[in-house]
Amino acid sequence: MTTVEITIIGLGQIGTSIGLALAEQKTVHRVGVDYEQSNTRTANKMGALDQAVNNIPSAVRKADVVILALPVDEVQETLKLIADELRPGAVVMNTSPVREAIDQLAREIMPKDRYFIAVTPTLNPAYLPGQAIGVDAARADLFKNSLMIITTPPGTHPDAIKLATDLASLLGAKPYFADAVEADGLLAATHFLPELMSAALMNTVINQPGWREARKLAGQPFYEVTNPIMNLDENKALGQAAILNRDNVVRMLDQLILSLEALREKIAEQDNAGLSRLITHALEGRLTWWRERQQGYWEGSPTDAIPAPGNILGRLFGIGTKPKENK
Fold this sequence. Notes:
elongated, alpha/beta, 8-stranded mixed sheet, 2 domains, Rossmann fold, 6-phosphogluconate dehydrogenase C-terminal fold
């Protein structure tokens, strides 16, 4: 029986949850490493790994699949670190929410006959309310009943694409294929805009003279709207992810400004009926989205059943030559 070695680099909530979800796959050997060794130890204790290592280059030398579950500002550095260590036919999967810019970096850095695919997972709707982050928030079913956005650059080997769909199925997710441009546009609206909006709100309020007293009164609405800034996709270079996807993010910020101006106009004009229409439209949209998100019910038809992965991952090895193990 062929064993597939999967190396997970980055053991926060996403990387550790992937390891936990693959725990029952007897043909998968899970190797894990994180820049923070405490995360590696925690993930290992949770049962997310078969082997915990501390050295990133050595962690990928035998890997058939490398999953980068990293903050956006660590992806380029990590690709440079592992590029020359990847065996021919290895597939690198990047989970970050930036597509086109990172795909370009990968093309420049990775050697030939290694494959790069973006596989950003969305989360099980059961974990969206009060969402926690970090390795302690990892769950084996974190991606169940959700979608995994898969982007494959032109020329990607069909077996590598099949591998990505198989991985989505094993995680309990449904694959959703989108090209880099489309994915960046979708993620700008649903991922980056809430983070930047929460930053703008926080800056607006804390710069007001009344903040010293207002902070004592801030409650659940304030907490929930400002919480996205706690979930940024960078460790050090805050805002880099939005800059990498700048055209789409700027476009969505412009739309947000227009929406705020519309609300401002109705309030300034004391147009109660107009303001009510805008708020009702938003409320109905929110209720519809959340119902559909919980049920996996989109555009009038239920989400297709998650396909069975079949001979999971086994087809991968038509891509490159898997080195023989010493007996």
